[in-house]
User: Fold this.
Amino acid sequence: MELAERLSELAQALSQASAAVGILEAIEEVLDDYQDGELSLEEAMEEIQGLVEEFQAVRALSEMTPEELMALAEEEEEGEEGGLRS
Assistant:
């Protein structure tokens, strides 16, 4: 395995770990708010579901190749340009 490939894999793992820590901290805050009575069970579950979806999106992005990221960026750019013309 080339050094560049290994470094890329390590960067992806670090990114995922960092995102996971952030999500866990946010979930901990939601649970604290629930325990303090600031959120209902339903509200807390909705918040946690949103955080899980956010993590899944970060994970999917971190697993993309540079080519896939470029294609996604181009799609986003085209979508923004289309929205501005409307």
Observations:
- The two ends are 48 Å apart (CA to CA).
- The chain has three helices and no strands.
